[in-house]
């Protein structure tokens, strides 16, 4: 399965430490194995799934879309203002 990253996702991951990136890679591998692991959102965010996981004590949310051929990683971040920022980003696209 092909994995695509949005520009926003890439920018946020660049700020991660090596340790955080290793944990993120494990989570992305879980998504590749089972893309339906996240929760599908409703309304404005229809067809967007969000997978939640922790790095140390901080819970991160990873938004993505998928079909048979690819997974598109849209956005990652802590919960604060996450859905507001996600909606704003998806409206721009």
Explain this structure to me?
The chain has a single domain (about 1-90), classed as 2-Layer Sandwich (YaeB-like fold). The chain is of the alpha+beta class. The protein contains three helices and five strands. The chain is globular and about 35 Å long. Helix content is about 40%, strand content about 35%.
Spans of 5+ residues with little confidence (pLDDT < 50)? Answer: none
Order of helices and strands: EHHEEEEH
State the strand order across the main sheet.
1-5-4-3-2
| Global mean pLDDT | 96
Name given to the CATH architecture: 2-Layer Sandwich
Give the fraction of residues assigned to helices. 25-40%
- Tell me the name of the CATH class: Alpha Beta
Question: What is the 3D shape?
Answer: globular
Q: In this structure, how is the largest beta sheet organized?
A: 5 strands, mixed
What is the overall number of helices? 3
Termini Cα gap: 23 Å
- Count of spatially separate domains: 1
Strand fraction band? 25-35%
CATH level 4 superfamily: RelE-like
Say what the CATH topology is. YaeB-like fold
The counted number of beta strands is 5
């Amino acid at each position: 399965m092909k994995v695509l990253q949005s520009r926003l996702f890439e920018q946020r991951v660049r700020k991660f430490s090596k340790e955080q990136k290793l944990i993120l890679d494990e989570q992305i591998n879980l998504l590749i194995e089972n893309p339906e692991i996240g929760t599908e959102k409703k309304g404005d965010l229809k067809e967007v799934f969000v997978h939640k996981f922790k790095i140390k004590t901080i819970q991160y949310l990873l938004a993505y879309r998928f079909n048979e051929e690819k997974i598109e990683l849209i956005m990652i971040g802590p919960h604060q203002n996450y859905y507001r920022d996600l909606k704003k980003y998806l409206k721009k696209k």
